[in-house]
Amino acid sequence: MSIIETRNLTKTYGRIEALKGVSLRVEKGQIYGLLGQNGAGKTTLIKILLGLVRRTDGEATLLGEPAGTVRVRRRVGYLPEDHQFPYYHTAYSLMDFYGSLYGVPAPVRRRRIPETLELVGIAGRMHSKIKTYSKGMKQRLGIAQALMHDPELIILDEPTDGVDPMGRKEIRELMATLKKSGHTIFLNSHLLGEVEMICDRVAILQRGQLVREGTIAELTQQKGLYVVRLAEGQSFPIEAVAQQGYTVRPLSEPPGAVEIAMHDGQTIDPVIRLLVERGLSLRHLVEQKQTLEDVFMKTVEEAEPGVDRQRRRGAARPVGGGN
Amino acid sequence: MQSFFAILKDSYREAVDGFVIYVMLGLSSVVILVVASMSFTPAEPAVAMEAIVQRFAVIFPDKGRSRVISASFENRYSASAVKPEGDGYRLRLSVTANSSRGDDPDNPQAGDSFRRTVAAWLKQPGRTVKMSDLAGKQQPTGPGGGGPPPPEIEFSFNHEATIEEQRAVTDAQMEEFLRNQFAVHAGLTASVQRRQANEPQYEFDVTTTGGSAVRGWPHTMKMFFGAVTVSEDVNLGTVLWIIEDQIINGVGGAVALLIGLIITAFFIPNMLRKGSIDLLLCKPIGRVQLLIYKYIGGLTFVFLITSFTVGGIWLAIALRSGHWDPRFLAVIPLLTFTFGIVYAVSTLIAVFTRSPIAAMIVSIGFMLFLYIVGQVKTIFDRLRLEERGDNMPQWAFTLVEILNNWLPRYKDLDKLTSKLIADGTLTEAERRTFGLASIEYPSWESTILVTLAFIAVMLALSCMRMVRRDY
Ligand SMILES: Nc1ncnc2c1ncn2[C@@H]1O[C@H](COP(=O)(O)OP(=O)(O)OP(=O)(O)O)[C@@H](O)[C@H]1O
Ligand SMILES: [Mg+2]
Question: In terms of residue numbers, what domain contains A89?
Answer without folding.
Answer: 2-219
